[in-house]
Amino acid sequence: MAEDYKKNRAKDGDAMKPWVLHPKQIASRMKKPNKIAVPYSFWQAGFLFITWYTPWPECAHFSEYYGDVMERYGFPPVLWIASIERARQAICMPIVCFDSTKDEDFERVQEMNRETTEYCLKQGWLNYRPDPYVHIQAYYQAAMYWKYLRLFKKMVDPAHIMHPGRLALP
């Protein structure tokens, strides 16, 4: 993965042209964290958006827990949270910023992801887009969740055209 990043980034920080945004553009990007990553990801930056669903009253606990873990692993504690389902649930999205040219950073990201997944699933929180190398084993251990996930997928997508291969489902 690091080699792919090396091909598509600026060779040094001085070669990058400043990108001046209108205040309305800045405000809109603050609402869309995936738009923030694009201009910065071309120069030694890696961004991983790990999205979890939690009940709204539990998102503060999630934030405190995840922020502490991110700091312990040496990542800035950046999180984005939004309410969904009329504030009954929350999308809690830690944004992991790392140097994509260093293999050890990838390893730290995966190790942190493993640790937090184990904790978060025990809390009953669900990951939106599980990493097949990290989350899938934990999902296999959550037998009842897995059973109903497979049934739901079969019900809404009998032809297996939506997100093929995600969660190791057809």
From TrEMBL:
GO molecular function, one term: catalytic activity
Gene3D superfamilies: FAD-linked oxidases, C-terminal domain
Source organism phylogeny: unclassified sequences, metagenomes, ecological metagenomes
The protein, known as: Uncharacterized protein
Keyword entries, A-Z: FAD, Flavoprotein
Listed InterPro entries: Cytok_DH_C_sf, FAD-linked_Oxase-like_C
